[in-house]
Predict the structure.
Amino acid sequence: MDGSICMDFGPYLLLASLEGAVQAAVLALTAVGLSLVFGVMRVVNVAHGEFFMLGAVLAWWISNMLTGSPLFGFLAALIFAPLIVAGLAAVADRLILKRLSYDPEATIVATIGLLYIIQQGALTLFGPDARPVAAPFDFRVSFPWFGYSGYKIFVILACVLVLLGVWALLTRTRIGLIMRATQFDRETAQAFGIPVARVYTGVFAFGAMLAAVAAVLIVPTQQAYYLMGLDPLLLSFIVVIIGGLGSLKGTVLAAAVIGLSDGIITIFFDPTLAKILSTILVAMILVFRPTGLFGTATR
Amino acid sequence: MLTVTDIDCFYGDVQVLRQFSLSAASGEILCLLGRNGAGKTTALKAIMGLVPPRSGSVVVDDVDLTKLPAHAAPKYGLGYVPQGRRLFSELTVAENIEIGLMATGQGKPTRDRVLDLFPVLRERLSQVSGKLSGGEQQMLAMARALCTEPNVLLMDEPTEGLQPSMIAKIREVVVALKQTGVAVVLVEQRVDAVLPVADHVAFIENGMNRETVPVQQLRDDPSLLHRYVGI
Ligand SMILES: Nc1ncnc2c1ncn2[C@@H]1O[C@H](COP(=O)(O)OP(=O)(O)OP(=O)(O)O)[C@@H](O)[C@H]1O
Ligand SMILES: [Mg+2]
């Protein structure tokens, strides 16, 4: 019998919570990107999961090109994969979304198209195989009852750090002020010298970049694969709907709840139950509180 | 100096302004009057580039703004107080003011001067602007526009829904601006509120120019008011 199954309930719950926290942290980062794009641009980006996938696949590609220490390869991936993804997103914004005048319905259809283009592009360029990415370091944090991956704990901390950075950017800087002004009233923002078109491109690129950062961080514990974008997309949607469209605080809280409960239910029961429960939760919220738990009515 | 010449504006296929023209010189207060739906707001938005004219020109100090993107307007001296205030209502008073300052890269001297004009705002800097009273919101909308240090100020029904003391305050600020050489275009429904400070009055009907007259002429003969505004 596997030793871990003989563990007491307490340590077992701790292990499940750690797994959940890793999920929650990565999910929060990914979903905040989606939420930001929706909040500022009113664009539902169905291709968001593909930016996540691209981040992971590029991480494999970059760290594979740089045969040196895994740490060096990882750091290069952490810097360049998100930048490449942001650049691609900026191009997609200029070539596609801008030409549709950011019409809410047309952009949904267009980003579905973008999803397939990116997916097929990744398949063509990088092949159909799942690729491992080496973790930059490998040590175990030993708890009295079990050892736990130090890298996963690093992932949690890194995500929290990036989220704090996003929060500071939005609330403490001029760029954040410009983004919020554009979000609340794009026409008046223009009348006050804000180049709304450039803000939109920047926000779309930034949202995609956050997904890519999340992917680079988590991919050493998974594998890079051209179809891996679907799960983060669905979970991000669930989180953004529960948290309230466009509400960052709500998004992060909802990610914590969904990620943690998903981790815990998955370990104690089974993954399918976890997915069923979060789907039911979304359905209930859509029925009883369509603006989400923390959202305000959109104007 | 603002010169608008023969602009045509559309919402989709519907033409709202037809060969519309207007001009306001430095230190002049031009009042634009017309009934609901006549196209007054559209005229101001066209000047700001928010509803780009399909033809005609909007020239400020020899620069044709119709060839520039909308966000360039403040850099060429245009300040805007929109109808219904259009504050960034979830942002604080200080943040709304900051956005005005950022538009043309103004700093603390401008901020101090504008806050001195509207002392109520100084007491409410950290308050969310959507929670201000109607009068305070209008003060903030004006303060935000003045923070861009405009040469031409466009104001769309600033007295809407305000009590007389607030209207008097707005008049006072507008007159002070006039004295510093700002050209003011004032759109109004409440004629009595603005006629005392106007130099010229332009009438608009169905998106077209009607008479433009010195204000003195209306004092002597109010029949134009009756015809175009219905009072
Ligand atoms: N965004 C829009 N889309 C379509 N039509 C519009 C839009 N805004 C205004 N209109 C129409 O254009 C015409 C002129 O509107 P505008 O707002 O310029 O009038 P106004 O003189 O400012 O009226 P009010 O005194 O009520 O503010 C009206 O017939 C109005 O219905
Ligand atoms: Mg109007």
In short: Chain B has a mean pLDDT of 95. The first helix of chain B runs from residue 40 to 48.
